[in-house]
Specification:
The protein has helices at about 5-35, 125-130, 195-210, 230-235, 280-285, and strands at about 40-45, 60-65, 120-125, 140-145, 160-180, 185-195, 210-215, 230, 260-270, 270-280. By secondary structure, it is of the alpha+beta class.
Length: about 280
C-alpha cells in the first residue's frame, strides 16, 4: 500500500480519536453536573388515602433534578411528616407537599381536612342520592329543600321547593347504621358538606323541618343563580301557567275610613215625613 495513503489514514484516525475523547469528556462532565444538582425529597411509598396518618412505612425518598415543587419536603426533614394526617389522596412515588398534609398535631380523619373557619355538616340523604355514587368527596352540590312554609295550611298543594345553598363541596359520603321502629338495623346514607357556620345553622333547621335533596353541579360552574322557588300548584296549572312561584307575602296595610261629616234621619209622624240633619261627633270635636 502507498506509504502516503497510510500516513493520511493514521492522521485521520488520531484526529477522530481525539474528537471522540473530547465529546466523551464533555458529555460526562455535563451528566456529572446534572447528577450533582439533584435533590432528594420525601415521597409516598404507596398509595395513601385521605385522612390517613403518615408513618415510616408509608414514606420514602426520591431524587428530583432542577427546581423543586413548591412545598416539597427535603429528606433531612423526614421526621416532620411522620404522624401528620393526609388531606388529599397521595399516590406511590408522588412527592409529598406541605399543602397535602394537615397541620402538625391535628391528627387524621375527616376533622383534619376542614379548613379554618369552616365546618363539616352531616346531611341525611335517600338511597337515590347516596347509593347512586355521585355524592363523592370533592363534588359540588346545591341543597334544595321542600316543605310547607310556616303559617300555611297543611295542604299538599301548598308545598314549596327552594334552593337554600349553592356550590357546596362534599367532604365525605358514608353509611350511618341506625335502628328503625322494629329494632332492625337500617342503613342511612350520610353526606358531610363543607359549609360556613351560618350555613351550618341553615342546614340544621332545614334538616329538622323539611326534606333535603342534593343536586349535582359542574365543579367548574361556580356562579350563584337567583332562583325564586317553585310551588306545588304551579306544576298542575297547565302550559299557560306562569313559571314560578313561590307565593309572595303581601304586606299588611291599615285601612283608614274617613268618618262622614254629617248624617240625616227621616222622621215619620202619621202621614207627615220630615228629615233631620245632625253633625258627626268627630266633626264636633
Amino acid at each position: 500500500m502507498n506509504r502516503r495513503l497510510l500516513t493520511i489514514l493514521l492522521v485521520a484516525f488520531v484526529i477522530a480519536s481525539g474528537c471522540a475523547f473530547g465529546v466523551y469528556r464533555l458529555i460526562g462532565n455535563r451528566l456529572a453536573a446534572t447528577r450533582a444538582t439533584g435533590t432528594r425529597v420525601i415521597a409516598a411509598a404507596s398509595d395513601v388515602k385521605l385522612g390517613a396518618i403518615l408513618d415510616a412505612a408509608s414514606v420514602t425518598t426520591v431524587d428530583i433534578t432542577g427546581p423543586l415543587p413548591k412545598g416539597a419536603i427535603l429528606e433531612k426533614d423526614k421526621s416532620a411528616v411522620l404522624g401528620r394526617g393526609v388531606i388529599s389522596d397521595l399516590y406511590q412515588g408522588e412527592p409529598i407537599l406541605e399543602s397535602r398534609l394537615a397541620a402538625p398535631g391535628s391528627g387524621g380523619g375527616l376533622a383534619a381536612t376542614i379548613p379554618n373557619g369552616m365546618r363539616a355538616c352531616a346531611v341525611k340523604v335517600d338511597d337515590v342520592v347516596g347509593v347512586a355514587g355521585f355524592a363523592t368527596p370533592g363534588m359540588r352540590v346545591d341543597v334544595v329543600i321542600s316543605g310547607i312554609p310556616p303559617g300555611q295550611p297543611a295542604s299538599t298543594q301548598d308545598t314549596e321547593a327552594r334552593t337554600i345553598l349553592q356550590n357546596i363541596e362534599v367532604l365525605s359520603a358514608g353509611t350511618d347504621i341506625q335502628k328503625d321502629a322494629n329494632g332492625k338495623a337500617k342503613p342511612v346514607q350520610v353526606v358531610n358538606l363543607l359549609v360556613s357556620p351560618e350555613q351550618a345553622e341553615t342546614l340544621s333547621l332545614a334538616t329538622n323541618q323539611t326534606k333535603i335533596q342534593l343536586v349535582l353541579r359542574n365543579p367548574l360552574d361556580t356562579a350563584v343563580a337567583k332562583i325564586p322557588g317553585t310551588a306545588m300548584g304551579s306544576l298542575f296549572a297547565g302550559d299557560n301557567a306562569t313559571p314560578a312561584t313561590v307565593r309572595p307575602v303581601a304586606a299588611t296595610r291599615a285601612i283608614h275610613r274617613t268618618a262622614p261629616k254629617s248624617f240625616s234621619i227621616e222622621v215619620i209622624n202619621g202621614s207627615k215625613r220630615s228629615q233631620e240633619n245632625f253633625a258627626s261627633p268627630e266633626v264636633k270635636q
